[in-house]
UniProtKB/TrEMBL annotation:
Membrane disposition: Single-pass membrane protein
Protein name (record): Penicillin-binding protein 2
Organism: Flavobacterium ammoniigenes
One Pfam family it belongs to: PBP_dimer
Ranges annotated as biased composition (Polar residues): 625-635
Keywords: Carboxypeptidase, Cell inner membrane, Cell membrane, Cell shape, Cell wall biogenesis/degradation, Hydrolase, Membrane, Peptidoglycan synthesis, Protease, Transmembrane, Transmembrane helix
Residue ranges constituting the Penicillin-binding protein dimerisation domain according to the UniProt record: 46-209
Chain segments carrying region Disordered: 623-649
Database matches in PANTHER family: PEPTIDOGLYCAN D,D-TRANSPEPTIDASE (PTHR30627), PEPTIDOGLYCAN D,D-TRANSPEPTIDASE MRDA (PTHR30627:SF2)
Subcellular localization: Cell membrane; Membrane
Presence of the UniProt keyword ATP-binding in the record: no
Keyword DNA repair set for record: no
Gene: pbpA
Entry superkingdom: Bacteria
Length: 649
């Protein structure tokens, strides 16, 4: 048996090898296609990217024609370099540099020589292309922005790098890919599928027709259109309200988790990242390390949430049974929580119960409620984990899973946090009481604050926030239609909501009411420190406001964070009221608030942090000089100057 087994295995293996070779060489000639590369020219047909619409069908992003100059280095022959460079308005040094880069990629394969020529530039080159062997043009489509806002939502299109080409065989040198925003999140849907044509060449390098009569050719498939959940009108309005301010606004539809507005300030006109000036303009924005126009504060900025966090403090205390609606706490403009320790409060003082504690934002009431929650259990470490788990059930302290490629998880402390801070133990509720009022170790992003309010509006559940509403011909991810239920009993939300409603009727947002709209809200002020000249300096507090409306059957939940804006009712509160009215009524009746906010500038506060970087200042001067010295300036240069100035307002 052993004598037969080995020869049998050898015969079987040899037979399989012969069959495979026969298949590859005789039946399947795809490998011949690759081996004949010298006699075959590959042309790609790039499809249009899918269009982007808002929730109401308004077109936000379409496409415009563009042309890339491609080069195959080994086919360059008898080139008049001077004429070529003058035609494309480049230097000889640039020409040499680009050719060398193309040779490194491949002497025989096409690579991009010059990108994104407009129609006028292309027409001039097309007239003389026959004189430049080794060069040809590749038609592409670039983004055409129908609006001048929403840059952080859309993202932009850029060329793939070598690392991505090595990882993903779909992409070749010079291909375009979406970066940031929905362009990155939905790249595979928006990009479509590029077509390929194989052209046969003769020994004189002349094209003689399709290889194998087009057997291997494929047709380009246009990208799918997508509809965002964004309401274009309130997105635009939010960006206008945030001019000359820094911060973020996030609005969510509670019943679906759809993001209605995602505002970051400062921002920029998305059109400046299109065309041949894209790289230069991106560098200009990137180097502004102070205003940070590329930094999406709505998703990335982690702030102490301040008084809005008292909502969760109250809910957890109710759930744990340490307070009820009738629990009374004495406030003497604050309360003494330990020997020599006093937490100040700006409410009117006296004996307060839950309802008044909410609408007057009493630190004493919620500080006491938090300490009772922690002191309920023998071990503070166990107690803080109980509290932390309740709070995390609102989607806090974790990445939320929304469909945008950037974000931060904030911070909700637990026992591990305090074991690191107090390695020798001995800590208790008095050491961590500042968590009660949204200070201490608690950090939240604006989108988390907005989702918290959506959860309150829903009386205890939320859907993962998402920016996609519809994809043509495809369902959206099921995770966006999956309900998440908190650990808080539904019955405890009613007294909290009643208190939030009276924030507008009796409390800190009384002057922000909008006639005819029942708004539930909460003001917030978070302390703000920064290092200036190496010294920890207290700056103007951050202004925070969260709200939802209407009280019954809520349609919008919103969080507004304005850096260095002062009290919550000063800037963030009016912005929230205006955004809510704009969304629900499509018009504004509180024109007094609108005028005040549109004219309000916080640049003086930001100047304390150093103002605009010197690099950006120099570039702005250069851009201004270009515009003033040229009688005909391209639209992209004008838009660049306008947009960069918008960033600094």
């Amino acid at each position: 048996m052993r004598k037969v087994l080995l020869p049998s295995l050898i015969i079987i293996a040899a037979s399989l090898l012969v069959l495979r070779i026969f298949y590859l060489q005789v039946i399947d000639d795809s490998f011949k296609l690759k081996s004949d590369n010298n006699a075959i020219k590959i042309k790609y047909d790039y499809p249009e990217r899918g269009y982007i619409y808002d929730r109401n069908g308004k077109l936000l992003v379409s496409n415009q024609a563009s042309y890339d100059i491609m080069v195959i280095p080994r086919e360059i022959n008898k080139l008049d370099t001077i004429e070529f460079c003058e035609l494309l308005n480049i230097t000889k040094e640039d020409f040499i540099k680009k050719i060398e880069k193309a040779k490194i990629y491949s002497p025989r394969l096409p690579s991009v020589f010059l990108t994104q020529l407009n129609k006028i530039e292309f027409a001039a080159f097309q007239e003389k292309i026959r004189k430049f062997e080794g060069f040809y043009f590749q038609k592409r489509s670039l983004r055409d922005y129908e609006v001048n806002y929403g840059a952080n939502i859309f993202g932009f299109i850029t060329q793939v790098n070598e690392n991505l080409i090595a990882k993903n065989p779909y992409y070749n040198s010079g291909d375009l890919i979406g970066k940031q925003g929905v362009e990155e999140s939905y790249e595979e849907i928006l990009r479509g599928i590029k077509g390929v044509k194989y052209i046969q060449k003769d020994k004189y390098n002349r094209e003689i027709g399709s290889f194998k009569e087009g057997k291997y050719d494929t047709i380009a498939v246009q990208g799918e259109d997508i509809h965002l959940s964004i309401d274009a009108e309130i997105q635009k309005y939010g960006e206008e309200l945030m001019i000359n301010k820094r911060g973020g606004i996030v609005a969510i539809e509670p019943k679906s988790g759809e993001i209605l507005a995602l505002v970051t300030a400062p921002s920029y006109d998305p059109s400046i990242l299109v065309g041949r000036q894209r790289s230069k303009n991106y560098t200009l924005l990137y180097r502004d390390s102070i205003a940070k126009p590329l930094y999406d504060r709505g998703l990335l900025a982690e702030y102490p949430p301040g008084s809005p966090f008292k909502i969760l403090t109250g809910l957890v205390a109710l759930q744990e049974g340490v307070i009820n609606e009738q629990t009374s706490v004495a406030c003497n403009h604050g309360f003494s929580y330990a020997r020599g320790r006093f937490m100040r409060c700006h409410c009117h003082g006296g004996m307060l119960q839950l309802h008044r504690g909410i609408y007057e934002s009493c630190n004493a009431f919620f500080g006491t409620s938090y300490m009772k929650t922690i002191n309920k259990y023998v071990k503070p470490s166990y107690a803080v984990d109980v509290w932390s788990n309740h709070v995390k059930s609102f989607g806090l302290g974790q990445f939320m899973g929304y469909d945008l490629p950037t974000g931060r998880k904030g911070n909700i402390p637990d026992s591990k946090t305090y074991k690191r801070i107090y390695p020798n133990g001995g800590w208790r509720s008095t050491a961590i009481v500042s968590n009660a009022i949204g200070q201490g170790e608690v950090l939240m992003t604006p989108i988390q604050l907005a989702n918290m309010m959506a959860t309150i509006a829903n009386k205890g559940y939320y859907y993962t926030p998402h920016i996609i509403k519809k994809i043509e011909g495809k369902p959206i991810d099921k995770k966006f239609t999956t309900k998440h239920v908190t650990t808080i009993n539904k019955k405890y939300f009613k007294p909290i909501i009643d208190g939030l409603f009276d924030v507008y009727n009796l409390g800190t947002a009384y002057h922000l009411k909008v006639e005819g709209i029942d708004i539930c809200g909460k003001t917030g002020t978070a302390e703000n420190f920064a290092k200036i000249g190496g010294v920890r300096t207290q700056l103007e507090d951050h202004s925070i406001f969260v709200a939802f409306a209407p009280k019954d059957n809520p349609k919008i939940a919103i969080a507004v964070m304005v850096e260095n804006g002062g009290f919550g009712a000063t800037i963030a509160g009016p912005i929230a009221s205006l955004m809510i009215e704009k969304y629900l009524r499509k018009k504004i009746t509180r024109t007094d608030l609108e005028t005040r906010i549109l004219s309000k500038s916080l640049q003086g506060q930001y100047a304390k942090l150093g103002g605009l970087s010197e690099t950006v200042k120099r570039e702005m001067k250069k851009q201004d000089s270009i515009v003033q010295s040229k009688t005909t300036t391209s639209k992209i240069n004008k838009d660049t100057v306008k947009s960069i100035k918008k960033v600094t307002r």
